[in-house]
Write a structure and sequence with these properties.
Elements (H helix, E strand, L loop, with lengths): L5 H4 L5 E7 L2 E7 L4 H12 L8 H14 L15
Antiparallel strand pairs: 1-2
Length: 83
């Protein structure tokens, strides 16, 4: 029997963020790899003038989601003196 694939051993995990602002509380989640779709949906909601969810809230949620997936956006390549 072949060994299990690495993907089977470490299945993608759901991503979730909870945001509390005043009396409003949002808990949003999505499957790993679908973060951008979630952010797009939240952005649509935030653009509605009757929505208590604001653009700054969506930006914060996006930042939190990016942190949970450990993307390399904030990584700085080593300089020769730090290598």
């Amino acid at each position: 029997m072949p060994p299990p694939s690495p993907r089977a051993e470490n299945p993608p995990r759901d991503r979730s963020v909870t945001l509390i602002r005043g009396v409003h509380r949002w808990r949003v989640s999505c499957a790993a790899g679908h973060e951008q779709s979630l952010v797009d949906s939240l952005l649509e909601h935030a653009l509605n003038e009757d929505s208590p969810l604001g653009l700054e809230d969506v930006a914060l949620i996006r930042t939190r989601l990016a942190g949970s997936i450990r993307i390399g956006v904030n990584k700085v390549p080593p300089t020769p003196d730090r290598a």
